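pinning this so it doesn't scroll away 📌
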Amino acid sequence: MAQKTAPASTQQHVIEETHEYHVSYMDSQTGRTMVEEFADLPAAERFANLQLRDDDCWAIVEEVEIRNHLRLVA
């Protein structure tokens, strides 16, 4: 007799949604593109403004959505 098992089901529930801010910028001292992460927008904008030391420098602030999931398996 064949043994029957219940189908496996998985569900994901979003338990928390947060945002963080990434600042991509040109480091004029090293000539490299760098990235820093911040928890709040004002801190990210302050940091980005500090990176604009001369005409060759640039900085971009990006909002990144972070989702924490709870996975349920039956």
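📌 and the second one:
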Amino acid sequence: MQKGLKIASGLALLLSAASTPVHAGGATDTFRIAQISAREMGFEVKVNGPINNPANCQFPNQLRINKTEENYSVIVSTLTTAFIAQKPVYLWTVGCHSDGRVNFIAVFVDN
């Protein structure tokens, strides 16, 4: 009886994990930043035209990092510097925000 309960619990766990939606993360294309915005919820970046959008978010040219991310200050400083210097960047995305913007957690500056 105990073994059957463990198997049933394991199957239930597998089925619940399989039905959970997964948002793919990944790198965007390299792009130049068109606009930056510091807002209450985080820091936003806008791009002229859509970019590679691994998570298939509704607004692929609008990206945001939440203030709660551990490396928020470093990323905001890096993005601001890249914007001023007009350097191309690419971002590591981790899904979509509830408002359809791309959620990202890392920035890379190209030369």
